[in-house]
Amino acid sequence: MPNYTFNVNGQSVDVDAPADLALLWVLRDKLGITGPKYGCGVNVCKACTCLVDGQAVQTCATRVSAVQGKAVTTIEGLANGDTLHPVQQAWLDIDVAQCGFCQPGQIMAAVDLLKRTSNPTDADIDAIENICRCGTYGRIRQAIKAAAARMSGYQVSERGDASSVMGSPT
Ligand code: FES
Ligand code: FES
Questions:
Q1: Which CATH superfamily is domain 3-77 in?
Q2: Per DSSP, what are the bridge partners of residue 52?
C-alpha cells in the first residue's frame, strides 16, 4: 500500500493508504481526527470541510494522494493553544450551534472566507455552500461578521490559525 506524508494540524504524519482513499476517512479512521464530519460523501453538504494549504476543501472528495507534502488543518488545529481562533470564539459568543453536526465544516468555511475577504458582505456569506439542516444560517452570518471585526487585529497563517498582531482582540 502506498505511503503518504503530510502535515496535519502542525504535525507530520505518515499514512499507508490506497491512493484513492478519501482524506476524510484517513483523518477520521486512521488518525482519529473526528472534527470533519461525514454527511453525504459526494461533495454536496460540506460537513467534511477542512483546509489544505490554507484553502477550504471537501475531504470526502479529496484523495489522500492529493495531499502528499501538503498542510491539512482541521477544526482541531484552529486554536492557538488555549486561545480559540476568532471564528471559534465568535461562534461561542453568538451561540451558533444547534445539533452541531455541520458546525466544524461551517467554521472551516468561514475561516476560508475570512482569509479571502476581510469584510464579507451578506452575499459573500450566503455564497458559502455548507448545509445546515438545523437552519442556523442567520447566526452563522452574525458570527462571521463578529469574527471579521475581531480579526481586524489578527493575522491568519497558512495553517489557518491566528496570532495577535495588535494586542488582545476586542
Ligand atoms: S461529506 Fe458531504 S461534502 Fe463531504
Ligand atoms: S447545527 Fe444541526 S445541522 Fe447545522
A1: Beta-grasp domain (3.10.20.30)
A2: 55, 72
Q: What is the pTM of this model?
A: 0.90
As annotated, the residues of the chain forming the CATH 1.10.150.120 domain(s) are 86-159
d(CA 121, CA 86): 18
Q: Cα(47) to centroid of ligand 1, in Å? A: 5
**Which residues surround ligand 1 with Cβ inside 6 Å?**
38-41, 43-48, 58, 60
Locate all alpha helices (DSSP H) within the chain, ordered by sequence. Answer: 23-25, 86-94, 103-116, 122-126, 137-150
| C-alpha separations of 53 from 40, 73, 160 in Å | 24, 8, 9
pLDDT in tens, 16-70: 999 999 999 999 999 999 999 999 999 999 999 999 999 999 999 999 999 999 9
Distance (angstroms) between ligand 1 centre and the Cα of 132 equals: 12
86-159: CATH topology? DNA polymerase; domain 1 (1.10.150)
Distance CA 165, CA 152 (A): 9
